[in-house]
Amino acid sequence: MSHTSILLEGVSIEFPRKPVTVGTIERSFLRMIGIGARRDPKFTALRDVSLEVKEGEVLGLVGRNGAGKSTLLRVIAGVYRPDRGAAKRAGQVSLLAGLGVGFNGNLSGKENVYLYGAILGHPRRVMDRLMSGIIEFSGLEDFIDQPLRTYSSGMKARLGFSVASAIRPDILLIDEVLAVGDADFKERSTKRIKEMMSEAGTVLMASHSLTLIKDICTRAILVEKGQIVESGSPAQVIATYRGEPQPKLAKVAGAR
Amino acid sequence: MKAPVKPALASVGPSGETAIRPPELTEINPPIGFWSGPARMWRNARENRHLLYNFIQRDIRLKYRDSALGYFWSLLEPLMMSAVYFILYVIIAGKPDPRYPLWVILGVITWSFFTKAVSDSLVCLTRNEGMIKQVYFPRELFALTSVGSALALTLLNLLVAIPLLLIYRIPPTPYLLMVPVGLLLTALLGLGIGMGMACLNVVNRDVDFFFRFLTRAGVFLAPVMWTVEMAPPSKAKWIDYLLLNPMAVPITMVRDGIAGERLGIGAGHVAYSVGFCLFSFLLGSMFFMRYEAFTIKKL
Fold first, then answer.
1. Do A81 and B29 touch (CB under 8 A)?
2. For residues A58 and A200, what is the distance between their CA atoms, to the nearest angstrom?
3. To the nearest whole number, what is the mean pLDDT of chain A?
4. Phi and psi based region of residue A146 (left: phi greater than 0; alpha: psi -120 to 50; beta: remaining)
5. Which structural domains are found in chain A, ordered by start?
6. How far apart are CA B195 and CA A139, in angstroms?
7. Strands A4-16 and A42-54
8. Which of A192, A211, B17, B215 could form a disulfide bond with B115, CB atoms 3.0-4.6 angstroms apart?
9. Residues B284-299: pLDDT tens digits?
10. Is the pLDDT of residue A165 over 70?
């Protein structure tokens, strides 16, 4: 019997709608005495989401842009704290998103590997051990002591992926980071992700690549307007997602 | 629910040992009570010290990269700044004490530590927006990095005192112990103001503008170009007011400590300044720890 790895109970999160300009003093004064516009409307990114993921599951997140997939992964990673509800997890987590955050163009490739590794939670001695493998996988041996600003964007992405994927967490969260670099690297990175998935206890993957989800996930959920509208086998969830009417007609259909 | 297909793997902890029991379900990033902020910050800083160390190392490496003089800028910068103040002083007040250049250089270094600590930690959330949204680690590390880097660079700057002390033939004295105290007070005050205001700065950038002005005006109101001892007895009352500036005591501590003199400020003012720095540190860190998660969503 495997244990529960992630447990979300009635999780809601709201973001303030960001106006282009900050409210000026006179406007907030008017608001204070009750005249003028009400408080800025809020955007509900997740609405009463409950989800249980057991260890060993590979869960695919399907849904349109802006449906709430990334926010859901970020709540599990700890980036955003839910406004309501409880979010719990068991074990170490690693979010594969925005490869190479914290990269600095003026540091060498190697220095950036140490820095990015530290940002992902790995002390120097762990990075020392992983370093040769990371450099080899990235295929950037000749450039590793050059400043990162001399790298092409593809090379940066390759280095970022190599560091991020050298890590073996209990819970792996993947947010659309598959397929970076050239064709050869793309193939190797997809292989590496599959390798990571088989070693990680639990995997959550948000992707628009439906064939990938169908291939490797044990379960899928459909996220729509901040809610989980369906949970089941990948094939079934993808069918629902594909069969949906276009956004304009969604309200009329009201499919649940 | 569908049964998991893969067998459950034994989870391997960060240090490599295999856990027999499955890891326990714990709340993700739970809210932090207002009063427990500073203790929590201390724990997080200890747990993530490798990251803090990496960030500070990065900042120091980047500071003088691609400059021919490199580290010497750390010595040149305060030297040139003091030269300017020295000339200004000669024009306005005539012949100063021969040790004036030493005093002013130490004043400049300590004051710029405070300025840098505040201005960098003030913008630590807005500046690191990209990182904050993609990866989680305790956000107070950004503020601690700002102040830690500023402190490291200040220590490098302070090495300029060594040749000066040789020139003035001032031997090291026990008063040197005041230097770390003065720097610690500066760090606490900078961290307190910076952390307290960092959250507000996300909502409203006016905070940044206001503090930029304050640090520029403060250079005259703090004993940077002048020292407490310089005031003529007839103006002693004014000095009492100027000592309300919490930075007056830390600057004088660093200055008198290195110059090997007794602190020229009364115990009452010292107690006031120590209390002020501690209080703002506690308040600022409590505020930051409590409201940081709420603020992040506004980024």
1. yes
2. 9
3. 84
4. beta
5. 4-92+209-253 (3.40.50.300), 96-168 (1.10.8)
6. 41
7. antiparallel
8. B215
9. 999 999 999 888 888 8
10. yes
CB interface of B with A, residues 38-77, below 8 Å: 50-51, 53-55, 58, 61-62, 65-66
ipTM: 0.83
Reported in sequence order, the residue ranges of B23-128 that DSSP labels E, i.e. its strands, are 25-27
Measure A170 CA to nearest chain B CA, in Å.
Answer: 6
Record: contact A79-B135, CB cut-off 8 A? yes
**Residue A35 CB-density burial (10 A; 0-12 exposed, 13-18 middle, 19+ buried):** exposed
β-bridge pairing A227-232 and A58-62: unpaired
In this model, does residue A254 exceed pLDDT 50? no
Element (H, E) at A16: strand A4-16
pTM of the full structure: 0.86
Residue B170, phi-psi category: left (phi > 0), alpha (psi -120 to 50), beta (remainder): beta
Q: Is A78 left (phi over 0), alpha (psi -120 to 50) or beta?
A: left
Model confidence pLDDT, tens digit, residues B165-197: 998 999 989 999 999 999 999 999 999 999 999
Cβ distance B296 to A79 less than 8 Å, yes or no, reads yes
Structure confidence at residue B282 (pLDDT): 96
Strands (E), A147-214: 171-175, 202-206
Q: How far apart are CA B57 and CA A92, in angstroms?
A: 26
User: How does residue A252 score in pLDDT terms, banded at 50, 70 and 90?
Assistant: very low
Which of B241, B120, B258 has the alpha carbon at shortest distance from B181? B258
Flag the least confident range among A48-52, A66-70, B136-140, B234-238: B234-238
How far is it, in rounded angstroms, from Cα B175 to Cα B261? Answer: 7
Distances (CA, A) of B41 to A70, B192, B278, B285: 28, 12, 15, 8
Closest residue in B to A55 (Cα–Cα): B8
Domain ranges in chain B are 68-296
